[in-house]
Amino acid sequence: MKKFLPLLALFTAIIFLSGCSRSNEFTPDTELDLTQNNITCNKISFYLDPSLGDGYECTTVPESSSPDRPTYYPFIYPTHTEVTIQNYPLTQTQFPPQIWIYPVAEFSEQLPEVIPLLVADLKSIISDGTISGKRMPFLPAVLEQQTFFAHEKNISFTGGQGIRFITEYSEGPNPITNQNIIYTFQGLSDDGMYWVAVTLPISHPTLPDEYSTLPEGYTQESLIMDNAAYTNDVGGRLSTVAPDSFTPDLSILDDLIMSITIGQ
Question: The pTM is what?
Fold first, then answer.
């Protein structure tokens, strides 16, 4: 069985090398009700639509810490669960199709200047839609910058709730492409014990497939000089398109989120 290997996420590669994992296949049942979850990994279970993959890898990622950590260092995290969806319809993307379950208390102890603020921001968004800054809260920690967000929607799962949105992360003024745009869900269990993070690659026919393709009307120089206007324009246009114009359809990804159950 082929295993997914993320191409552009170094911290994920390190996790795969150090964690304890197992791979699994399931037999798709087209008549399976969405309430009948077909994936279980440690404390999490969910329904994986056959169109999104035909197997998964369950990993228990060991704690990583450093007494000399810089703020928001991406290699600092507690022991947590990671689920990788195998044979996802999109490949060679910046983010892998993965789900993480982080214990909030332990994470807050490791990064007290970071995680409690993220939790507070996420709770505010969930409760009344208030976004305190120009970026949405996001885990896992990455070195790249969030350039835009769109299609925000509150979603509840069994025992928790959060917000889904589409976004892109970039290390500089690059074109927004189908290689790096993602659907993500960031949520909390109702008891506040767990942060649920999901990254699922998506694509849209209006976006270029590769970085080498410059956006229409832009040169390399103008993309750098007018990058804020460019990202605002792309984010604005994507916010107006229908959820089913993306691949995969955002509603199918929403169904996965709604099926999530966190055990004790």
Answer: 0.84
Distance CA 58, CA 27 (A): 17
Each residue's pLDDT, cut to its tens digit, for the chain (264 residues) gives 333 333 333 334 333 334 445 555 543 444 445 458 889 999 899 999 999 999 999 999 999 987 666 555 788 999 999 999 999 999 999 999 999 999 999 999 999 989 999 999 999 999 987 776 678 999 999 989 999 999 999 999 999 999 999 999 998 888 899 999 999 999 999 999 999 999 999 999 999 888 777 777 777 787 888 888 889 889 999 999 999 999 999 999 999 999 999 986
In terms of residue numbers, what domain contains 119?
10-262
Domain count, the chain: 1
d(CA 193, CA 196): 10
Domain-embedded: residue 172: yes
Q: Would you say residue 1 lies in a domain?
A: no
In a domain, 5, yes or no: no
Alpha-carbon gap, residue 170 to 146, rounded angstroms: 7
Residue 221 covered by a domain: yes
